[in-house]
Write a structure and sequence with these properties.
single chain; 281 residues; mainly alpha; two-stranded antiparallel sheet; elongated
Length: 281
């Protein structure tokens, strides 16, 4: 069981890093449209006194119209990113995962073909991650519209001497993403975690599927961080340098955001039934 695996020149993470970096940059650029629009609107409010007057109304309408235009630009840019990521980038990342598995087995890349099983796997992942991204985009637009309503309410308050731009930014930070626990995280931190998770999960799913379908082995060797657990980072069942069945690998292709997990083929274990999944090397 300790037969060394031949690792090729580039790790899986190195092969997909360009996709991850490019995607994070595009997401950050999309969200910067919102953040920039918010800053411009708040800056415009410094010259607007609350209440109703002809001058106030004209300037406010112009500022609100500019913000709404930016909302449309954000929706188009972010939506185009989600479509490209799901329909183009993720299939390429899937193929990189398959090719890396073949490289590590010293087999030619041409063995990988888009079979029904591979197409089904990447289609399922792409649909799931497209839905995740579009949900984030929808939530960002909802928060931006809530900010816009708050601006309008503040501008109508004739009892106020000025509009509190700092409070509006504090209560409606459009350069953040809200997690399920209501914690706010910078857009870049969320984007890097989400994109890395999706890319690593997709590539490792391809690697595990290729080990079974193209290489004919039920076993893979896991390389991971020394402290990373199998099902989650804190799982006491450590992942690094263990043997796992392909089915277990498909169930847990990644343990957490920023996971560096990689699967290597164990062709020497073909037909071995006495090994326990999770056995240490």
């Amino acid at each position: 069981m300790t037969t060394p695996v031949r690792r090729r020149a580039r790790t899986l993470r190195q092969r997909i890093l360009g996709y991850i970096t490019g995607a994070v940059d595009r997401l950050r650029a999309a969200w910067s449209i919102l953040a920039t629009a918010q800053t411009r609107l708040l800056n415009a409010l410094t010259d607007i006194r609350p209440g109703r007057s002809a001058g106030t109304g004209t300037r406010l309408r112009a500022a609100l119209a500019a913000f709404n235009t930016s909302l449309g630009a954000f929706a188009r840019t972010a939506g185009a990113f989600a479509e490209r990521w799901a329909s183009s980038d993720l299939p390429l990342i899937y193929r990189e995962g398959a090719w890396t598995m073949l490289d590590n087995a010293a087999r030619p890349n041409r063995l990988f073909q888009w079979t029904d099983r591979h197409r089904g796997a990447v289609t399922s992942l792409s649909a799931q991650y497209y839905a995740d991204l579009t949900a984030r985009i929808t939530e960002a637009l909802r928060r931006a519209r809530a900010f816009l309503r708050a601006v309008q309410d503040a501008a109508r308050d004739a009892l106020s001497v000025r509009i509190d731009a700092a409070a509006l930014r504090r209560d409606h930070p459009l350069d953040t993403v809200i997690y399920a626990n209501n914690a706010r995280h910078p857009v870049e931190a969320w984007a890097r975690a989400a994109i890395t998770w999706q890319a690593v999960t997709t590539a490792n799913t391809a690697a595990a599927r290729t080990a079974l379908d193209e290489l004919g082995t039920d076993w893979v060797e896991v390389r991971d961080g020394p402290d990373c657990g199998w099902t989650s980072h804190d799982d006491p069942d450590r992942a690094n340098r263990t043997l796992r069945t392909v089915q277990d690998a498909l169930a847990y292709p990644s343990a957490h955001p920023h996971c560096i997990r990689e699967f290597l083929p164990r062709l020497d274990l073909i037909g071995r039934a006495e090994i326990r999944s999770g056995a240490l090397l």
